[in-house]
Amino acid sequence: MNAPLYNMEILRLAAAIPHHERLAAPGGTAEKRSPVCGSRVTVDISVDDSGRVAELGMLVRACALGQASAALLGEAVLGRTPAEIATARDALTAWLAGERETPPDWPGMALFAPALPHRGRHASIRLAFEAAAEAATIAAEARV
Fold first, then answer.
1. What is the largest CA-CA distance in the chain?
2. Which residues of 93-119 are buried (b: 16+ CB within 10 A; e: fewer)?
3. DSSP strand E in 1-144: where?
4. How far is the C-alpha of 130 from the C-alpha of 133, rounded, in Å?
5. C-alpha gyration radius of the chain
6. pLDDT (tens digit, 9 = 90+) per residue, 11-28?
7. CB-CB neighbours of 49 under 10 Å
8. Regarding beta strands 28-33 and 53-61, do their DSSP bridges make them parallel or antiparallel, or are they unpaired?
9. Neighbours of 4 (CB within 10 A)
10. Residue 122 and residue 119: Cα distance in Å, rounded?
């Protein structure tokens, strides 16, 4: 049975992205863009003294899949380390590429299983995690 690419949960997440405003003074910022579809995500992150994400701000200009991915990132990124975000990014990339059978260990990621055969959609799904991993690393290095 084929599940629909855009289901109610994806549309719900796309309409409810947390931390959807940019930070006034982030510790790190990164923007990622998909040349395939034009989706773009900018992520601002500030980290606390232990190097964990304390604040997040995002500007998301993406399709519903990219918006849903940004929402999942935003719902669970506070308190994470740059390494944890990078691990999630790498696991997401490997899963979408068919290099691993299970979705990343990040809440809600199995939601994207119907997108696995749609390679043209993968870049948009990865954007928020790619930008967050880079922004978190920049923010952590700036605190040293």
1. 51
2. bebbeeeeeebbebebbebbebbeeee
3. 28-33, 40-47, 53-61
4. 5
5. 14
6. 999 999 999 999 999 999
7. 7
8. unpaired
9. 8
10. 5
What pLDDT, on a 0 to 100 scale, did the predictor assign at position 37? 83
Q: C-alpha distances in angstroms, 126 versus 97, 112, 121? A: 11, 11, 9
Tokens describing residue 111: 């939601």
Q: Which pTM value belongs to this model?
A: 0.94
Count how many residues are written for the chain.
144
Secondary structure class of 69 (helix, strand, coil): helix
Please, what's the b/e burial string for 10-38 (b: 16 or more CB within 10 A of its CB; e: otherwise)? beebbeebbbeeebeebbbbbebbbeebe
